[in-house]
Design a protein that fits this description.
Layout: E1 11-15, H1 18-29, E2 32-37, E3 44-49, E4 52-59, E5 75-78, H2 82-95, E6 105-106, E7 113-119, E8 125-131
Parallel strand pairs: 1-4, 5-8
Antiparallel strand pairs: 2-3, 3-4, 6-7, 7-8
Length: about 150
């Protein structure tokens, strides 16, 4: 198998409250804080596992994420098992996160991959999915991708 030329390095997100967002991402994804500046005008946190940065939070926004504007549609994370999705769903429910569908849903009708679709505290749309979702579960939009229309 050939190496791909490009791979996602990390994703940077603008947030309104660094402490709140950092706590959310640590609780839901189990991220470690790799580096941060929680005070002053230039607040940020580098989150990931070990030394690998996956998400960077920058406190430099106001209001909620606007899905109607050009830019990020959603950020998706793949996990190994349905149990991992269920664990994240429980953490999100505890945090009072906004879900776009009820429970784990397939990516489309008959698909064996699927997940949960939700928002972070700033309204940024997120997905946690896996392969091995029961195909008898009804897809929210039939043949259209669930991850494209939430």
């Amino acid at each position: 198998m050939e190496d791909t030329k490009y791979a996602t390095g990390h994703v940077d997100l603008n947030v309104t409250d660094l402490a709140r967002s950092k706590a959310f991402y640590e609780k839901v994804f189990g991220f470690d804080t790799i580096a941060e500046n929680p005070r002053g005008e230039r607040r940020f946190a580098f989150l990931g596992y070990g030394k690998e940065i996956l998400v960077t939070l920058w406190q430099q926004s106001e209001g909620l994420f606007g899905a109607a504007n050009p830019g990020l549609h959603h950020l998706s994370f793949k996990v190994p098992t349905v149990e991992d999705v269920q664990s994240a769903e429980a953490a999100l429910s505890y945090l009072g996160a906004k879900f776009h569908y009820e429970g784990i849903v397939p990516h489309s009708e008959g698909a064996t991959s699927g997940g949960i679709f939700f928002e972070d505290p700033d309204g940024i749309r997120l997905e946690i999915f896996t392969v091995g979702v029961p195909s008898e579960t009804e897809a929210p939009h039939g043949e259209a991708p669930s991850c494209g229309f939430f």
